[in-house]
Design goal:
Elements lengths: L1 E4 L29 E8 L7 E7 L2 H6 L4 E6 L5 E8 L2 E10 L8 E2 L3 E2 L3 E3 L12 H4 L1 E3 L5 E6 L6
Parallel strand pairs: 1-5, 2-11
Antiparallel strand pairs: 2-5, 3-4, 3-6, 6-9, 6-10, 7-8
Length: 157
């Protein structure tokens, strides 16, 4: 099932890393050349909980875990799609995690190692922490549809 996000509505919390908070903001009016972006998520192994998607528009917000747009959707299979509509052209990065137990955060074990599946745009690697902005960011053009495919990673416990 496809899920759509409209910039005028957003209220999702996202935690990733030590604690990643998603403070999704209300977007301003749509431009005629606004773009849509599909986030195609694969690697969902546990068929429970929610998929939390945060869309970041600059490195500072990415590093501080303050997403410009966000969405949480119930898990509905091994692969899902979340669509963001009416996005302005610019540079973006995506952080995703599966909140298996629906407690509103990415659960960690000692040492800050995630116990729930997570992923980043460009399937950027998470080496000793969240993927870097330089590995995860991408450009979105005016009026062009775009897609990002993210495969969730589950670290061994």
């Amino acid at each position: 099932m496809q899920h759509h996000y409209t910039p005028g509505f957003s209220k999702t919390c996202l935690a990733l890393g030590v604690t990643l908070a998603l403070a999704a903001q209300i977007a301003s009016a749509h431009s005629a050349a606004a773009a849509d972006m599909d986030v195609n998520i694969s690697g969902i192994s546990a068929h429970k909980g929610s998929i939390m998607v945060g869309l970041y528009t600059n490195q500072d917000d990415y590093d501080k875990n303050v997403a410009r747009y966000g969405r949480g959707v119930a898990v509905e299979g091994k692969a899902m799609q979340v669509t963001f509509t009416g996005l302005p052209a610019g540079t973006y990065a995506v952080k995703i995690f599966q909140d298996v137990n629906d407690n509103g955060q990415l659960d960690m074990r000692d040492g800050g190692i995630p116990t729930e599946p997570f992923g980043f745009s460009n399937n950027a690697p998470a080496n000793h922490g969240p993927a870097s902005w330089s590995d995860a960011h991408f450009d979105l053009s005016d009026g062009k549809a775009a897609a990002q495919s993210v495969r969730l990673t589950q670290l061994h416990q």
